[in-house]
Design a protein that fits this description.
This protein has eight helices and eight strands, in the order E-H-E-H-E-H-E-H-E-E-H-E-H-E-H-H. It has a single domain (3-219), classed as TIM Barrel. It has helices spanning 16-25, 46-59, 73-80, 98-110, 155-170, 187-193, 202-205, 210-219, and strands at residues 3-7, 30-36, 64-69, 87-91, 114-119, 137-141, 175-179, 197-200. It is α/β, with parallel strands linked by helices and 220 residues long. Helix 1 (16-25) packs across helix 2 (46-59) and helix 5 runs parallel beside helix 6 (187-193). The longest helix has 16 residues, at 155-170. It binds D-xylitol-5-phosphate and zinc ion. D-xylitol-5-phosphate (DX5) binds at residues 7, 9, 32, 34, 67, 143, 145-150, 179-182, 199-203.
């Protein structure tokens, strides 16, 4: 079964609580929190996303799916552990080597959260194969991280297939999450390739009816 994680990146401050409640009613499976530090990517959404995550935690029982697009992952794990995320995902490109990556995985597990590792479009997915046994999720970026509303890079469909094939061969059970440019046109492509968690911001937030679009993305 495919799940949908709604990115709240473009939700306006004044409308936040009502949008979050509407998304819960519309049966999003997760709230996707895009944490940017102004260094790993240009934009800085750090304090806004922390405050959105706190608001969601107060008014909803749904799980938080936190995506760190930051250089200082250790600090971000510390700051966001206060909102008890269901999952924390960090970027392979933000770390200097395998020791750091394994330390971050351990730190996230100590917060009782699921661990996700994300790869940017230019990173070969083979590079993260050694970590697969320790992860719950691989987050394949289907756009360059940094902003919403971009178009899915079609080469990423092959990357998802490659990861899915490797996991099946090796008997590794892992969630494959995709993020960026997911809509009713691209959802079938990434699902057929092996993705089972779809992150969508624009496609959901711009739709007239959140419930319908979330259902359609699941069934696409
Ligand atoms: C991109 C973020 C995404 C993205 C999703 O850096 O990680 O979560 O904003 O938004 P859409 O669905 O608009 O591509
Ligand atoms: Zn994201």
């Amino acid at each position: 079964m495919v799940e949908v994680s709604t990115s709240v990146l473009s939700v306006k401050q004044g409308e936040a609580s009502s949008v979050f409640l509407a998304l819960e009613k519309a049966k999003t499976d997760y709230f996707h929190i895009d944490v940017m530090d102004g260094k790993f990517v240009e934009k800085n959404t750090y304090s806004q996303m922390l405050s959105y995550a706190e608001t969601i935690k107060r008014i909803s029982n749904l799980p938080l799916d936190v995506h760190f697009m930051v250089e200082d992952v250790e600090q971000a794990i510390h700051d966001f552990s206060a909102v008890y995320p269901n999952q924390m995902t960090f970027h392979y490109e933000a770390e200097k080597g395998s020791e750091e990556i394994l330390t971050r995985i351990h730190q996230i597990k100590e917060c009782h959260a699921k661990v996700g590792l994300s790869v940017k479009p230019e990173t070969n997915v083979e590079e993260i194969y050694p970590y697969l046994p320790y992860l719950h999720t691989v987050l394949i970026m289907t756009v360059e991280p940094g902003k919403g509303g971009q178009t899915l890079l079609t080469d990423m469909v092959e990357k998802i297939k490659q990861l899915k094939k490797y996991c099946s061969q090796e008997g590794i059970e892992i969630d494959i999450e995709v993020d960026g440019g997911i809509n009713l046109r691209t959802a079938p492509l990434v699902k057929q390739a092996g993705a089972n968690i779809l992150v969508a911001g624009t496609a959901i937030l711009m739709a007239n009816d959140y419930h319908t679009i979330i259902q359609e993305l699941k069934e696409a």
